[in-house]
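Q&A log
Question type: sequence-to-structure
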Amino acid sequence: MASEHDDDLDTSAGPPSLVGSISRRQVLTAGLAAAGAGAASLAAAPSASAAGQPVAETQPGGTAAEFRASLLQSGPAGENFIAFGYLTAADGATDDDLFVGTPSDTTALLTAYAEGELVRRTVDVSVHSIDIEGTLTIYQRAAPGASFGDPSSFKDGTPVATFAITLQDILTVFAPGRGLPTLTGDMRQTQSGKIAGGRNFGHVGGRSRFFATGIGQRPNPATFDTQFEMAGNWTTK
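Response status: OK
Response body:
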């Protein structure tokens, strides 16, 4: 018949062991406490690989970065494009990595500048399709100071990422000189540098899917000069 002390270690058959008369329950309790403390310490301290994880890089299908930008179309046949703006979010980046103060063009620390050329154009009555190829560069600024009034200011700083881009712009014309652009396409990273804090921005060879939309205005119907206000993101492929 079992007694209430059956879960104690039996020490009657020989000299006391190192655990002496500690009960099984006490041993198990101590072991679980130690395991819990170990798990807590692991949760509190990120691994070295997590601490060095590149920014703007996620699992396939995840949003790597978000941005706000202006795009200008110019040239005799509307063949030239430039875009400039700033990152509003990036995977692995904090607000302090992105801005000094309230988010805006003038407080941004990671800015973007892109150049592209027209590859082909298909024009219908209300829907236009334009294919563009070019490059996009992300810059780490030492201090804020970019401004949409000065496109070249978005190129100040150290290049921390460069992408080859291929885009399709589908423009829905809803009024004379007014349209809604939708840009989609592919990005391939060709250069990677370090942002402030020492982490890489993506990695060379990384591929992403680009998306942006907004509104466009063409003040003079005799030219192709058009200005677009846009926002968008890219997702890791």
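Response note: Residues 142 and 157 are 6 Å apart (CA to CA).
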